[in-house]
Amino acid sequence: MSIFSGISEVETSQGGVYFLPGVYKVRIERVLLKDGRLSRKFFIIDGKIVESSVADRPPGMRASQVIAMDKAPALRNIKEFMLAASGLEAAAVEEMTEQDWLDLCEGAVGEDQPFSGLELELTCRQIETKAGRDFTVHEWHG
């Protein structure tokens, strides 16, 4: 048996390229929940840029939004993405139960990848956090 046995079964690292402030059209490739270092979990929206107002993020490039699940705005950011990706009407959203939301989110990161291939508009803007750090806000639109 070779030391490289099993290489065909592993995924390569997809991280490292994030969206910069600007306006994009993005084709969603996958949505996943991934374990990070120190037992942290991340919700990742991975896509291919179709249109871009940012020279350093041209069409054809892959980029990701990475949401740390242990940060306060995580569920709000995920919900905003889910609303844009699912295309739910306001009336339907008002009637959704906690279990409906859980099913939608769990389904999004599951093997079926229901949002793969979907094209969404994305506006990113940079803000300064209370701690004085730069942070990129992502606003997804269907």
Textual characterization of the structure:
- It is a single chain.
- The chain has 142 residues and is α+β, with helices and mostly antiparallel strands.
- The protein has one domain.
- It has three helices and five strands.
- The chain has a five-stranded antiparallel beta sheet with strand order 3-2-1-4-5.
Record the SSE blueprint.
Elements: E1 22-35, E2 41-52, E3 62-68, H1 74-86, H2 90-95, H3 98-108, E4 119-128, E5 134-141
Antiparallel strand pairs: 1-2, 1-4, 2-3, 4-5
Euclidean distance between termini CA atoms = 49 Å
Q: So what's the oligomer here?
A: single chain
The main β sheet shows up as: 5 strands, antiparallel
Count of alpha and pi helical runs: 3
Q: Could you say which overall geometry the principal axes of the C-alpha atoms support? A: globular
Structural class: alpha+beta
Mean pLDDT: 92
Q: How big is the Rg?
A: 16 Å
Number of domains: 1
Q: Give the number of DSSP strands.
A: 5
Q: Identify low-pLDDT runs.
A: none
SSE arrangement, N to C: EEEHHHEE
In short:
By secondary structure, this protein is an alpha+beta fold. It has three helices and five strands, in the order E-E-E-H-H-H-E-E. It has one domain (15-141).
